[in-house]
Model the fold of this input.
Amino acid sequence: MLDFDWQFFALLMSNGILIGLMYSLIALGFVLVYKATDAINFAQGEFVMIAGFVVAVALGSYGAPLWLSVAVGLAAMISFGFGLERVVLRPLIGRPVVAVIMATIGLAAVLRGLAPLLWGAETRALTLPISDEPFIWGPLFVPPIQLLGALVSLMFLGAFGWFFLKSRKGIAMRAVADNQQVAMAMGINVERYFALAWSMAGVVSALGGIVWGSLLGVDTHLALVGFKVFPVVILGGLDSIPGAILGGLIIGIVENVAAGYVDPYVGGGTKDFAPYILMIVALMVRPYGIFGKAIIERV
Amino acid sequence: MIHRESGVLKTTYEADMALYPLPIARWTVAAIAVLMFLILPLILHEYYLSIINLVSIAVVGALGLNILVGYTGQISIGHGAFMSVGAYTAANLVVRLDLPFWVALPAGGLMAAAIGAVVGIPSLRIKGLYLAIATLAGQLIIEWVINHVTWISGGVQASIQMPRPRLFDYEIATQTEMYFFLLFFVVLAVVGTMNLVRSRIGRAFIAIRDQDIAAEIIGIDIFRYKLLAFGISSFYAGVTGVLYTYYLGIANYEQFQINVSIDYLAMIIIGGLGSVLGSIFGAIFVTLLPIASRLVMEAFGGMLFSQQAVLNIIPNLRLILFGVLIIVFLVVEPEGLNRLWRNIRSYFRVWPFAY
Done:
């Protein structure tokens, strides 16, 4: 490497930051559920896929205006999250962690099978009314959709950060997360907050579905975005919203830079591989993540 | 009595630990052995034997995973990858060095055990969800390495042709011969697991599952036993991979992707965690599910949908059924098919009395 190509590096970095923030958005759905209910959602990618399908179908097949499609998507995902908590997750409260993991894996299988049956297997376009022309700032090319995704992510991360820190409901939710029995004894309706948490995860997934769907197109492969959630949340800490941002940024940057420099030598696939290597290192060194709360166990 | 105990009259530890304390259990096992070894291969068509062969392979893998998840309480979403490690190890040994199956098979298992133990190292510090994700990472990384290192995967589409297994000079080629070949390993795996879980090692596993800190306090070396569990479990997985490779005649990483790991987890959940019989039930159930749903759809789907639609529906229906069954079993019958079987059995234990 004789002369370091700064322009290439800057491009990879900016791309990584934007993609990373979009990962943060999806990771946020995971963190919300884990923070409030201690449940682990292996179907987060499928949530995003379903939301993408709903919005794309409303826009494309029914020709609904954008605001209506987004509203339909949000409403669908809120009721979906709500119903899911009621039917599947609530009976599993207090059961071993493998039970919840397997239940959400089963749910993921159901959603992956159901979506093509309902909406067809072909890729749908989810077109937002923004231009495809990238902004060009000096050496950087920034596609508007990525910028939009990053802005939406930041907005929501800020909003949920405020919610958990300051609002009455957010504080109640943290209490539920900390100790369900004590929260119940203090007069908090634990089950209602569980439902609220899953609905909030639905909202985040709906937005994730819109931005990721318009970036990649909507089909069952959209669910694969969910695989990126795990490195992000492990790195940042499972129950931390700032962790979701930081983890998303790190993973986004690492996978883009790694793909840019390593891919030519190994023939592709580094993007899917590098985040997991980083995650393994994180698990070995700091298993509860950068901002996560270490769990102290007693017999 | 033949079919129930009348009082506990055991005077030795041997009698207490007997696998089949009742005569009826011994007769049933003998009857099943006769059925499996003599009657079934004589009366069944090759197609049905090929399905039983698939079940046999799944039984070995499910038993292995159950040792890890059901008995030791650790989670692995990486068993598909451990199978591929066994498969490619054996395929390379057979193709490059022309080794017989009785060398390649244990070698594949041992290689998988070594890799599995390495993937299991994080289990010392982390558990539950974190371990699940760590093994998921193991799955993806192993898959990627096998796919990208041509020295392992043989280059063209990452697959290696596997010759038929040979016993001395006799080639095991037909489904019926394959049936006996696989059945031998199923018996070995079942007997091995049943004896493992009632040994010192098995009791240590169960203690770790129930409360690992308490187990450490009473003097169980957690590090050793957790890695041992990963190793033994991955050994089974590796053997499963080798058997499957012999069955298919080709080693291909696409046969061992993450959905396979999930299939095996589903087997032990549906069958029953921490139970040998449950692993067998689960393996049968999950292997037959896609075959049965395809048959049903081909027979009756035409009444509701067009022929083309039926072909589209079948793979999706399989996924939906699979997911729904996992959820239903987790919510309604967490101890799985094994519990249903025990309920039936204990009903007839005192029959015709209520208790």
Observations:
- Chain A has a mean pLDDT of 83.
- The CA atoms of residues 96 and 299 of chain A lie 16 Å apart.
